[in-house]
Amino acid sequence: MHAIRRPARRLVAATVAASLALSGFVPRAQALTLSAEQVAESEGVVSGAVQRERLLAALQRDDVARALQERGVDPDEARARIAALSDAEAARLGAEIDRAPAGANDIVGTLVFVFVLLLVTDILGFTKVFPFTRPIR
């Protein structure tokens, strides 16, 4: 029993010695001065000018321009209207776009998901919605 304790003590001693030896390599935290713009950007608040640039850059994409044209909106007129927005309006519009869920109007995708979910539950025997399925159970 004494032989078991001695290797355990050596292992603990070696671990403590290694931890103390390597503790000097831990980097120290340093304080930096941040501007109000940096704090606002880190919290997700982006200025109107930055949002306006993001909106104008989005209009440069082919898929966005094509979608606007399909809905009867001239991309050049949309650019002019975005350029005419105040900073507050551009910030509000950009924040609203950031909060909007992607593909929120995809009703076909939702219907396909529900169909597959019901099909799987029918096959597993939890429900009986479709007459053409036979449960596994």
Number of helices: 7
**How much is the average pLDDT?**
75
Q: Give the distance, in angstroms, between the N- and C-terminal Cα atoms.
A: 57 Å
Helix content: 55-70%
Q: Tell me the number of strands.
A: 0
Order of helices and strands: HHHHHHH
Summing up helix and strand content along with how strands pair, one would put the structural category as mainly alpha
What portion of residues belong to β-strands? under 5%
**Overall tally of domains:** 2
Can you give a write-up of this model?
The longest helix is centred in the first third of the chain and has 21 residues, at about 1-20. Helix 3 (about 50-60) packs antiparallel against helix 5 (about 75-85) and helix 3 crosses helix 6. The protein has helices spanning about 1-20, 35-40, 50-60, 60-70, 75-85, 85-100, 105-125. It is mainly alpha-helical and about 140 residues long. The chain has two domains: about 35-100, no CATH class; about 105-135, no CATH class.
Element layout with pairings:
Layout: H1 2-22, H2 36-42, H3 48-59, H4 62-70, H5 75-84, H6 87-99, H7 107-124
Which key phrases capture this entry?
137 residues, mainly alpha, 2 domains, 7 helices, 0% strand, flat
Task: Please summarize what this structure is.
66% of the residues lie in helices and 0% in strands. With 137 residues, the protein is mainly alpha-helical.
